[in-house]
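Why run this: before we spend reagent on co-expression, it is cheaper to look at a predicted model of the complex and decide which construct boundaries make sense. The entries below are exactly what would go into the expression plan.
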Amino acid sequence: MAITPTGFPVWVRANDHTTYGGNVNKIDYQAVGPVNARTDIGAAEFCRATADLSAVGKTCPFASFSAQFNDTVPGIPTIASTDYLSMAGGTPTAVRNGNGDVTFTWLASYSDQYSVLGLVNIVHAEATVHGVSFRLATVELLDLSVSGLNESVRVRVWDAATATAAIDPLVSVVITTGTV
Amino acid sequence: MLGGLCPFPLRLGSNNDADGVSAEQYSRTGSTLASCSMAAPLALVTFDTTGPSILSYNGQNGVGAFAEPAIAKIGIGVVTLTWSPAYSDAYETSYPWVGRSTLLTGHGASPVGATATINPSGVIQVKAYELGVGDVEGTFTLKVF
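The model came back. Tokens follow.
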């Protein structure tokens, strides 16, 4: 019978050390620690791992990628699959709004390796422009589905000298989810 | 293996994937966790300089309003973010909290950006600007390492 893990997928940001089996009162059986460090894991070691895992799970990005905007064509941006890193897999869909202006949209939820569903709520986004030109990117969090949770990020790229839309920028985007 | 008949310390080893944790599997877990811990952000804050107010917070000390830093307004588009000098983990082990690196991204439909300065005590001062305009109020995401 397949097991259902405790807690939620990490991008829901609801897990703490107890989700992973940590407990402030956890002790080694009969107060006897590991007999052999090569074969045993003590309660103190396990508790440290659960606290650290809980901590990094709160700030880890949901996804990061680089997108080559295609304004000259014009067309939707290109996201190389090798550039896309995500907790949940699945590249976003992209819509070109205009020069240097693209909206990326993820699904409302994804499942983890154990088929546990986790809702997506994007609460932070970052964008950095590549290249030697002086360019600036801004982001906008959007709830296009009007679900109360943000599943989209609009990225605009500007040429700094003219404060007008940049053409064909290459942009790195990082998004982080929050609680739902 | 992990139940009442086999309490801590865990004894590594298993005959198959379902009934235990092998030394190789747990070693990989430890290595992965250590790598992530070294590169993971300390905190992310999305805030508005107008009030100022914090809109969302993810930190290794918690997610949500209870864990947020204090935000204070210094001038137009200039705010400071101040965390406690130390935080405790779930087991009340306390350790200093000091940001060393920052990344900033502006939000919205205008070409806004911001710069950050980390003072020796760990207070981060953010100064916002808009291309062609100068000092402005705005919304920003700050990532701290």
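The radius of gyration of chain A is 21 Å. Residues 11 and 44 of chain A are 26 Å apart (CA to CA). Bring this page to Monday's planning discussion.
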